[in-house]
Design a protein that fits this description.
heterodimer; A: about 725 residues; alpha+beta; Aldehyde Oxidoreductase, domain 4; globular; B: about 210 residues; Ubiquitin-like (UB roll); 5-stranded mixed sheet; about 25% helix
Chain lengths: ~725, ~210
Amino acid sequence: MAEPEPVAQDKSRGLRRRKFLTFLVAAPTLTVAGRFGFDALTEASAVPSLPALGEVSDLGDVIRTASTPTHHLMVLEVTEDTRVRFELPRLEVGQGISTSIAMIVAEELDARLDDVDVTLSDARPELEFNQMTGASANVRVLWEPVRRMAADARARLVQAAANRWGTSTDELTTQDSAVHAPDGRSLSYGELSADAREESAHGEPKAASEYSVVGNPLTRLDARDIVTGKAMYAMDLPVEGALPTVVARPPTINGTVGSVNAAKAKAMPGVVAVTTIPTGVAVSAETFWDAMRAKDALEISWNPGSIGTMSDSDIKSELKKAVQPLAAPKVRDTYLDATFDFAFVNHAPMEVESTVADVRADGTAEVWMPSQTPIYAQQVIAETLDFDLEAVTVHVIRAGGSFGRRLFVDTALEAVRVSQAIGRPVKLMRTRQDDMKHGRMRPRYHHKIRASYTGGEVLSFEHRLAGVAVDLNHGLGEALTATLAQQGQPVGGAGLYYFNFSQAVPYNVGLANQSIQEIQLDIPTASFRSVYSGTVRTAEEIVMDELAERMGKDPLEFRREIVKANSGTTVLSKVAEAADWGKAMPAGHAQGVAYHAEYRSHVACVVDIDATDAANPRVTKAVLAADVGQVINPRGLEAQLMGATMDGIATVLQAGVHIDNGAVRESSYGDYHWTKHRNAPFEVEVHIIPTTWDPGGAGELAIPASAGAVANAYARATGTRPRSFPISF
Amino acid sequence: MPKKFKFFVNGERVEVDAEADMPLLWVLRDKLGVTGPKYGCGVGVCRACTSHLDGEEVQPCVVPVSECQNKKVTTIEGLANGEELHPVQQAWVDADVGQCGFCQPGQIMAAVALLKRTQQPTDADIDAIENMCRCGTYPRMRTAIKAAAAMPPQKPGGGKPTEQPRGNGPKQPAAQQQPQQTTSAPKPSDGQSSGGEEDSGTLLDGIGSAFG
C-alpha cells in the first residue's frame, strides 16, 4: 500500500506547509465485495432470468472504478485547535451528503461530530473522475476511502500519544476527539496533531458492531442554518460589486437573437450594461428589479428555435416510429402487450439557475456556482474564455435542489461571458420563467412491453423504448465512456452505456430483454433523478400488476414469488405487513404496490390512494421498506425516500411539460403542478431493513417504486389502465 | 422617480431610496442585504420569499415597497430571539425538515402565520399552504407544524423548560442590551402575540414518530 503523503507536498494548490496533521487517504484497495442485485437468489418456482449487465456491474461500480485512482488525493485535516476538516469533492444538493460524510469521519476517528467540518471542495482537476455528484453513488464511492482515511488518522494520533507517554498503543483509547490513557490522562487531537503528522501508522476501520455514530439517526448538521436563513446559496454570496444580471430569452426553445434595440433599456434607472450572448441578451444593473424591468424594455427580433414548430404530438410520433418492434412471438393468447408514454419533466429546483462570475482583466476568473461536475465546469469555462485551466477557479456552492439540473454549466457560461464582456463581476440569475421555458428536461419517452406467460409463470419479458436523447456530455458521460473503453468495452454512446449499466428487470421473468432507441432532437435535456429507471421501471411495475391480474394472483404475492433477490422478498414482506396490504377500503380508494432494485439497494412501496374524485386523486399514505446495505444516517435516508416519493406522485399524477409549436408551454409552479401540501400523503412511513452490506445508493431509489405504486393504486381505485403520464396533463 | 421609504426590518429602522413599485423582495435582497427571503418565481406562486408585514404573511416578490411605509417587516432572520429559536424553527429542526433548504425560510414564515391564525391547524389548513418544496419535505413539515401547535401556551416569564441549551441563559440578557444588533434585537410588536417569540417552548415527544 502506498505511503500517504502530507498534503503540504501538494504544490498544485499552493498550500503552505502546515504543522498539523493533514494527509491524503492511503491508496485504498478497491473493494469489489459489493453484493450483486441477485446476490442470493430466492428459491422461486419462477422461470429464472439471466442477470442483466446492470446487476453484475452497475453504474455505481463504473463510477467507483473511474474515481478510485484519485481517492488518495482527498484531504482530511486535524488542526491544532481540534477541528477535523474534510474537503468533500461533491455537491450538497440537499441530500445530506455533508452530514453523512461527517458521521463517517467522526465514527472512525472517534471525534465529536461538533468538531467535524465538511466543506465543499473547489474544482480540482487532479481528482479527474472523483469530483462528480450523481448516480446515487456518493456514499457508495466515498464510504471506503473516507473511513480508511479517518481510521488511519486515528491510528497516527494514538501512536503520537503513545510516544508522548511512552506507553503501548494497545493501552490507549480514543473518544471525543482525544486519546485517553488508563490512568486518566488524555490529550486532545489538536495537541497531538503536529506529532501525528510524523507518524505512519495505519488503522483498520471499525466493525459495524462497534458503531456509535454511523447507523444512528442524526438531524442534518446544517438544520439550524436552514431554519434561520443563514444557509447561503450562490445569489446570497456577498461578492463585492457583483452586478445583478438577467437574460432576455427567445420565445422558442434555442431560438437565437436576430437584432436588438437596447436604447430604451439602457436609459432605464440602474442599468449598467446590455450584452448580447449566444443564448439571448443580458442586462446587468444595480438591482435585479432594475435588470428585469430593463430586460422587458429591450426590443429584440428573434430567429426561430431548434425544433421549428414541433409539438408534443409530433415528438410522440417520432418516438413511435423510432421504437424497435417487439420481437417475441405472440404465443396463443398468453401474452400481454402494453404501451406507455411519459411527458417531458422539468427539474424545477427551487433555486433557479444562478452563478456569480468575476472574469478579470489580468486573465483570471473566479466563479461561484452549484455544480455537480465542477471539473467539467472549470474546463468549459476556461475554453469559453480562452483562459488556461489554472486561471479559472470554480467554487462549489450548496445548491437549492438539483435532481440532475446542476450537472450542466449553461448558466455559468452565460455569466462568464457577460462578466468578460463588461469587465465587472456579475451575479447572473435565471428567472423561473427562464428555467421553465429554457430549462433542461427529462426527455419524453414511448415504451412498448410484451410479456408472455403460461400457467402461473412468466416466460418472457420484452421492453422496447424510445426517447429523446438525454444529454450526458457533462463529465459523467465522459467518465463512463473513458472507463469502459479502457476495459475494452465496445465503443458506444454514453446513453447506451448508461442504460445498459443501470437497467435490469429485477424479477425472474424468463427471457428478459430491455433496449432503448434515442432520437436526436435539439431540445435541452439532462439526467433527471433516477434517469432511465424513472419511466422504464415504472412502466414495468404497471405491467407486473396486470400480469398478476391475468394470472389471478395478488400483485404483492406475485412479486414475492418472482423477485430475484432475497432482499426483494424482505422489503416486499415488510411493506405488506406495515401497510396492512389488502385491508378493506371504501369504494374509490385502493392500495398499490411496486418494487425497485438499483444501486445495490432495494425498496418496496405501498400507497393508499383516494380517487373518489378521479380527476383529483390524493395519495393519503405511503409506506416504504428499504434495504440499502449499511445505512449511514437513517434520518437522512428516510428523507430521501420520502422526497423521492413526492416526485413519484408528481410525475404520475399531475406534473409534466407541454411542447407547443417549438416552445415550452409552462412558465412557473402555477402551471407546472409539482407536488404541494395538498397532493402529499398525510403519512409517510419508512422502514429500514437492518443490514451491514457495504452501502448501496439511495438518493434516487424510491422514484420508480413510488411512481409504480401510485399508478397501480390509481388503476385499482378507478378501474382504469393508465398508459400516459402524468395522468392529468 | 425614486422616493424615500422608511420602515422596520427585523426591528431595525431602515430608509431606502427606491421606485414606489419596486418589490420588497429586491429592496430586501439587493438594497439591504437581507437574503433569507428567496427568489423562486417573482409572481407569488412558489412563496419562497414569504415574510411578514405588520405580522401578516406576505410574498415580498409581489409587495411594492410603497406598501411598507412605516410598517414592520419580519423575515426569517428576525424570527428567532437571538440564539433562541422560535418554536416553529425549533420544531423544524426537531423534525429535521430541511433538505436543500431553499424554500424553508418561506415555509417557516408561512407556518408561523398559519399558527397565528389558527392555533390548532387541521390537515385541511395545512393543505391550504401554497408554498412549494421541490425536495418534498411536506410530511415532515406537517409533523413540525402539528408539533409546534401542540406546544403548551406561552406564559411570559414562566413555563420555560428546565433544560435549556447550555449558554443560552447568559446570552439572552446580553443580546437584549444591544438592541442595535439586527439579528438579536427584540422585534417591534408585529402583532404576533400568540406566535410565542418570547419563549422557546417545550419540544414535544414523538416528533418524527410518524416516520417509523
